[in-house]
């Protein structure tokens, strides 16, 4: 319930007919001023009379989809809708009231209810919907609850509430489970059926809590031990939450019915223990629905033809969160205050408290009163969004027909009439789901890694298989060759032995038959035969040699095929290497995505904050040093972002982030340099960044990039790193001064000059680097920068000069420096004198300090007197708000002979 003067309401209320109510039966025939109410046609809807603003609301939804969550702040007006339901006569009434007419008469087609005052007089009232004793549960649901449930599914909060005397059918309307006959199902059961049919179980969720409010104590009906739940209101959004209440996720209708049964059993047990009835307590069912908006990506990419797939996958899903509250109120009849009900007076007061507070709030809202007493009871605190808030609210008031309860019936009707005047401002609850985007990117990364590993494994197996096959073939060929050679060798050996044996036998025989001429002839024959045998042997041997050659050529062929197998292996190896390259590229892309995601969430967060602060026109102002600005930006982005920077740091690795500084795509380079600058603002990261070569890359960017944003952010990061002595030496040795002064000479944005001057100012504070810094033109660069005239820039220059003068003074005191100040040598004195009395206090403070340091050393005195510094020193010694500087100036003037002479000459009485 919105408190105060009703800024959400436009003051055009629908008037009840009570104002024009006729007081006699006769005058009811006069036409009632049904159309006197201008807002009525706008709310009227053919299919469901209680949908009211829903048609307007639906039209506004697509607009808000395209424009994002932040633009939908205005809301849509939506009046509280009220239906009246009449219970049929029950058995007791049929007997007891048999001779009497009902005290109410309904005219559903005119949406009117007539309340009999006496035999000749009735009052007439008009409602958004009039439900007779014959109205089915299905019709009641469709008319009262369905539009509210649809709103919840679209991301709006919704309330359905029943009000009326005990026994008139509140629980019948809201809470019936319809186990014996499904036609009897009440609003809770039907609402959950509609919700479950619309949500997708994989990406959406439905969470339910069920509570009872009795005597201002809130009890958990799903966990009876939890009987004192506290209500937490978020001051900014006005959202109400119950952190102590049990939340059960509902995935199907059956588990919801079991939950309702369990809640009912606990309610019964609790009421028995407290010795009361459920009619004395309020029951609240809360259903939280989160849905991911579908089709949004498709709509966007067709809007913008050149959006890349990378940008698409970076877009976080949009979620809508609606909360449905169903309230079965305690009976509206007054409790006997005498205590005859078994209660003391105090208890009776406490029991009545929430309901009467609700009545008071509705009266205040209906009358547009300046104060709405929302905080008077727990019920009104719980329902602050339902009346005068951002929820769509539907109220059903239940009445009985009996003339004996005319008084209670009349007061119920009046409650309904006043509630009809309450105007809500419906608001879409929509936000980006960054967590699920990050989860999606993680899953994508895991998939790519798995795919790569799978391919690599397959290649390795293939290589092993080919190698083994080649090895097998080679050893088989070698075996065959050895077998064949061995076989041939054995065959020859055998043949040879046999031939020798035969020759020996023949020779023996020849010996024996020597001298026998007859036998000579025979021998000649024998010899011829032997010759024949020999030639046969020779040809056999030739054949064997051919066989050997053949085998040799086969072996050579096998060797060749082995070589080709080897080249195949080499090719596969190359493919594996290509895969590895591809994987590295993908990883680079992923880290870039993550850096962009980080940047996007920074920007989203900043935009949100800027909106919170009151619009984009505001610029964060006047910080003393760029370091503190970067720091504060990082601080602003909150712990969540810090954690995500650290997480990104871990996941992506510094090396990869730094490598993105040299990316081809200018946008990526800008994102990367911003991420590095954010990291460099944290002292803990600085060492790591320098060790990984980040400082070198940042300096290189100053030289190589043309983009001023890069120059500004890189110079800011260098200024941060330049706070450390070791890094100062590194920056100097890598040509930092000349890079920074070139950057300054091209800069158009004073913020760039401020970062550059800040970096040089830090370097000026290093005792060891004085001569080198001056030699490379550091002081001249600062004097060039002052031409821009911006006070923030001048403050940094003054800080640098003061740092330099302080180090120089220290060196002169220690004797390691002689001669005039290098600042005077480089012509800085006129500027210092000119700004020593600047209106901007940081500039004045630093220049005053610089003058005091310079004045410490007699060698500088003549120049200082001739440049007019003496006047300034006198002024400082008298007016400077800092006592130490005042004293220093005074002491210096009093002790330097040159200054004393100068004062005398100028006739300054000191
Ligand atoms: P309440 O919750 O307002 O105290 P109940 O819902 O418990 O009232 O209803 C009281 C009795 O009236 C119950 O027995 C219920 O079944 C009956 N009843 C209520 N409304 C109707 C109706 N529209 N049709 C039939 N019976 C009804
Ligand atoms: Mg009841």
TrEMBL record:
Which cellular compartments is it found in?
Cytoplasm, Cytoskeleton
Asked whether the keyword tRNA-binding is assigned, the reply is no
What GO biological process terms are annotated to this protein in UniProt? microtubule-based movement; mitotic spindle assembly; spindle elongation
Residues in a coiled coil are 449-487, 527-596
Residues involved in ATP binding: 164-171
Q: Which UniProt keywords apply?
A: ATP-binding, Coiled coil, Cytoplasm, Cytoskeleton, Microtubule, Motor protein, Nucleotide-binding, Repeat
One short Pfam name that applies is: Arm
ARM repeat copies, ranges: 652-694, 693-736
Similarity-based family? Belongs to the TRAFAC class myosin-kinesin ATPase superfamily. Kinesin family. Ungrouped subfamily.
What is its quaternary makeup? Interacts (via C-terminus) with NEK5.
Protein name, entry field: Kinesin-like protein
Query: To which species is this protein native?
Result: Gossypium raimondii
Provide the taxonomic classification: Eukaryota, Viridiplantae, Streptophyta, Embryophyta, Tracheophyta
């Amino acid at each position: 319930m919105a408190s105060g003067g009703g800024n959400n309401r436009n003051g055009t209320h629908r008037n009840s007919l009570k104002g024009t109510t006729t007081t006699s039966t006769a005058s009811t025939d006069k036409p009632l001023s049904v159309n006197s109410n201008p807002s009525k046609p706008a709310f009227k809807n053919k299919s469901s009379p209680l949908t009211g603003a829903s048609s307007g609301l639906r039209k506004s939804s697509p607009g808000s989809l395209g424009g994002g969550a932040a633009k939908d702040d205005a809301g849509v007006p939506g009046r509280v809708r009220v239906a009246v339901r009449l219970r049929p006569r029950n058995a007791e009434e049929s007997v007891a009231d048999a001779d009497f007419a009902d005290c109410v008469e309904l005219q559903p087609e005119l949406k009117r209810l007539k309340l009999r005052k006496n035999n000749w007089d009735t009052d007439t009232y008009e409602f958004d919907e009039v439900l007779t004793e014959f109205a089915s549960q299905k019709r009641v649901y469709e008319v009262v609850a369905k539009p509210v449930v649809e709103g919840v599914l679209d991301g709006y909060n919704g309330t359905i509430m029943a009000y009326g005397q005990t026994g008139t059918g509140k629980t019948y309307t809201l809470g019936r489970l319809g186990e014996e006959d499904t036609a009897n199902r009440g609003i809770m059961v039907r609402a959950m059926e509609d919700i479950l049919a619309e949500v997708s179980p994989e990406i959406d969720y439905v969470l339910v809590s069920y509570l009872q409010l009795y005597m201002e104590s809130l009890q958990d009906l799903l966990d009876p031990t939890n009987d004192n739940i506290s209500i937490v209101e978020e001051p900014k959004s006005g959202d109400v939450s119950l952190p102590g209440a049990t939340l059960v996720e509902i995935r199907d209708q059956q588990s919801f019915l079991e939950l309702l049964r369990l809640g009912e059993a606990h309610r019964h047990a609790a009421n028995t223990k407290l010795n009361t009835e459920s009619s004395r307590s309020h029951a609240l069912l809360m259903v939280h629905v989160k849905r991911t908006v579908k089709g949004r990506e498709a709509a966007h990419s067709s809007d913008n033809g050149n959006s890349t797939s990378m940008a698409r996958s970076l877009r976080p899903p949009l979620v809508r969160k609606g909360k449905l509250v169903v309230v079965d109120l305690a009976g509206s009849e007054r409790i006997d205050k005498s205590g005859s009900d078994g209660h003391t007076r105090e208890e009776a007061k406490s029991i009545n408290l929430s309901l009467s507070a609700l009545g008071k709030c509705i009266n205040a809202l209906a009358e547009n009163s300046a104060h709405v007493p929302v905080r008077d009871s727990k019920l009104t605190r719980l329902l602050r969004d339902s009346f005068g808030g951002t929820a769509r609210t539907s109220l059903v008031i239940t009445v009985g027909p009996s003339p004996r309860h005319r008084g209670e019936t009349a007061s119920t009707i009046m409650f309904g009439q006043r509630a009809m005047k309450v105007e809500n401002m419906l608001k879409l609850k929509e936000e980006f789901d960054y967590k699920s985007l990050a989860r999606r990117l993680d899953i994508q990364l895991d998939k790519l890694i798995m795919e790569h590993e799978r391919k690599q494994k397959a290649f390795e197996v293939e290589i092993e298989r080919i190698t083994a096959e080649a090895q097998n073939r080679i050893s088989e060929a070698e075996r065959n060759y050895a077998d064949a050679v061995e076989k041939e060798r054995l065959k020859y050996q055998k043949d040879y032995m046999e031939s020798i044996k035969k020759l020996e036998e023949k020779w023996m025989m020849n010996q024996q038959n020597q001298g026998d001429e007859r036998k000579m002839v025979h021998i000649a024959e024998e010899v011829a035969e032997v010759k024949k045998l020999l030639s046969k042997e020779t040809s056999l041997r030739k054949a064997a040699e051919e066989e050997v050659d053949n085998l040799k050529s086969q072996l050579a062929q096998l060797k060749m095929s082995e070589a080709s197998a080897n080249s195949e292996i080499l090719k596969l190896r190359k493919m594996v290497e290509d895969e590895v390259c591809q994987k590295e590229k993908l990883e680079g892309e992923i880290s870039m995505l993550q850096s962009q995601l980080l940047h996007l969430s920074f920007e989203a967060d900043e935009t949100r904050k800027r909106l919170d602060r009151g619009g984009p026109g505001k610029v964060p102002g006047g910080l003393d040093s760029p370091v503190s600005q970067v720091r504060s930006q990082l601080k602003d982005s909150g712990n969540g972002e810090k954690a995500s920077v650290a997480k990104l740091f871990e996941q992506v690795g510094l090396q990869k982030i730094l490598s993105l500084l040299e990316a081809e795509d200018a946008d990526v380079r800008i994102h990367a340099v911003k991420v590095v600058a954010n990291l460099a603002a944290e002292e803990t990261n600085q060492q790591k960044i320098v060790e990984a070569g980040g400082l070198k890359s940042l300096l290189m960017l100053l030289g190589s990039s043309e983009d001023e944003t890069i120059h500004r952010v890189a110079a800011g990061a260098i200024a941060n790193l330049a706070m450390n002595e070791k890094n100062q030496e590194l920056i100097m040795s890598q040509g930092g001064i000349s890079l920074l002064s070139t950057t300054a000479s091209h800069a158009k944005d004073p913020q760039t000059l401020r970062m550059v001057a800040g970096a040089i100012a830090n370097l000026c504070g290093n005792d060891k680097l004085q001569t080198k810094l001056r030699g490379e033109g550091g002081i001249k660069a600062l004097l060039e920068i002052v031409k821009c005239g911006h006070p923030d820039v001048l403050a940094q220059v003054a800080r640098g000069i003061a740092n330099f003068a302080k180090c120089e003074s220290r060196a002169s005191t220690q004797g390691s420096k002689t001669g005039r100040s290098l600042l005077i040598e480089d012509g800085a004195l006129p500027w210092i004198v000119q700004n020593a009395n600047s209106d901007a206090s940081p500039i004045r403070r630093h220049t005053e300090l610089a003058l005091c340091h310079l004045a410490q050393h007699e060698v500088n005195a003549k120049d200082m007197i001739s440049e007019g510094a003496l006047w300034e020193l006198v002024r400082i010694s008298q007016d400077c708000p800092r006592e130490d500087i005042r004293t220093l100036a005074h002491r210096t003037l009093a002790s330097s002979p040159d200054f004393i002479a100068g004062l005398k000459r100028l006739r300054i009485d000191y």
